[in-house]
Specification:
- The chain is α/β, with parallel strands linked by helices and 345 residues long.
- The chain is 39% helix and 16% strand.
- It is built from eleven helices and twelve strands.
- A six-stranded parallel beta sheet has the order 2-1-3-4-5-11, sandwiched between helices. Strands 7-6-8-9-10-12 form a six-stranded mixed beta sheet, with helices on both faces.
- The protein is elongated and about 85 Å long.
Length: 345
């Protein structure tokens, strides 16, 4: 008997496929998930109906056979300008691409850190940094939900972390400036509530100490990662009695703002002033001077997180030993740095 159905596929449900095939919903789900336990005659009947109805199984139908969710929640602390952030967009791009390849559904959840997460129908969670929302992570772990934390190292919880070696990256950037002959080196920090910004400050301080340079507290200018505060910090820096000859900035976005202020102040880069950023944001290539920067592997970090979480979701409810995966940075030398003009710099 031939069946014709001109309705759009979105109106067809797994119940329709089961009814017209003469089998149970569970059997249809097993056919969709390629379970080997289905009888061949039933498999052929179901496949014929699926083809005739042009049925496209939903994620929930595919999960019926296994009882597992393929939904991955990406939890990110909410901040102003998040959808203009190179960091956030790279994370979403890297995770989205791999989730699609692994047939996982990616759910973006922006959090203010004060509320509990809705964990229903979630197969696993990737926490992009932990900024005031550790309670959410602990709650998910207590419920046995597979979790991975990125861009933040957590020592005292049994959770897999994929993070950047920010301290080493920052130290390498400042040592590069020192190798050029700079001694008066400022640092414009990110938001020190974040582990990344705190570690970049630590790397800056380690580099100075290693080379017997006494840190000047006035040369450490704290911001919240915004370009507005970066501008304020740069303006304050250039008004100092003894102006630094170089600066290490905690992000490329802020470094580009510092570069703009320097040019407005009549300084030529790198002849009068050297700048190093952090991120390797593509926008740093297209300014008046290409920015020297520390490249952090955001796409690789995203992909590693998805791979680790996918493995945890497959073996759930078992809980293997958590991994701590540190990814290296790379100093990308471009045009924004040179030796200082004076010997006492």
């Amino acid at each position: 008997m031939t069946r014709k159905n001109n309705s759009p596929s979105k109106s067809i449900s797994i119940h329709d496929v089961a009814r017209l095939s003469g089998v149970s919903i569970t059997t249809v789900s097993r056919v969709i998930n390629k379970a080997p336990s289905v009888k061949e005659k039933n498999r052929l009947k179901v496949m014929e109906v699926i083809k005739e109805l042009k049925f496209q199984p939903s994620a929930s139908a595919q999960r019926l056979a296994t009882g597992k969710s393929n939904v991955v929640a990406l939890v990110m602390p909410r901040y102003e300008g998040i959808f203009y952030s190179f960091y956030a967009l790279e994370l979403i791009r890297g995770m989205g691409t791999l989730c699609e390849a692994l047939k996982l559904d990616l759910l973006l959840h922006l959090t203010d850190s004060r509320t509990s997460l809705n964990l229903k129908s979630v197969g696993g969670i990737i926490f992009a940094d932990i900024i005031g929302n550790r309670m959410q992570l602990e709650e998910a772990l207590d419920q046995g939900i597979p979790c991975v934390v990125i861009n933040h190292y957590i020592e005292d919880l049994e959770v897999t972390c994929v993070y950047i070696d920010n301290t080493a990256g920052a130290q390498g950037a400042v040592e590069y400036l020192i190798s050029l002959g700079h001694k008066r080196i400022a640092h414009i920090t990110g938001d020190l509530a974040t582990q990344a910004a705190a570690q970049r400050l630590e790397g800056y301080q380690r580099a100075l100490k290693k080379h017997n340079l006494i840190p000047n507290p006035d040369y450490i200018l704290k911001t919240d990662y915004s370009r507005g505060q970066a501008r304020q910090a740069a303006e304050a820096m250039f008004k100092m009695t003894e102006v630094a000859t170089a600066v290490f900035v905690a992000s490329d976005s802020m470094a580009l703002e510092v570069m703009a202020v320097a040019r407005e102040s009549g300084k030529k880069i790198p002849r009068d002033f050297s700048i190093v950023g952090f991120d390797d944001n593509p926008s740093s290539l297209y300014g008046p001077v290409a920015l020297t920067t520390v490249k952090q592997p955001l796409i690789r970090m995203s992909e590693e997180a998805v791979k680790e979480l996918s493995s945890l979701m497959l073996i759930r409810p078992k809980t293997p030993k958590a991994k701590k995966i540190a990814l290296p940075t790379e100093l990308i030398i471009r045009e924004s740095c040179s030796s200082p003009l004076t010997k006492d710099s």
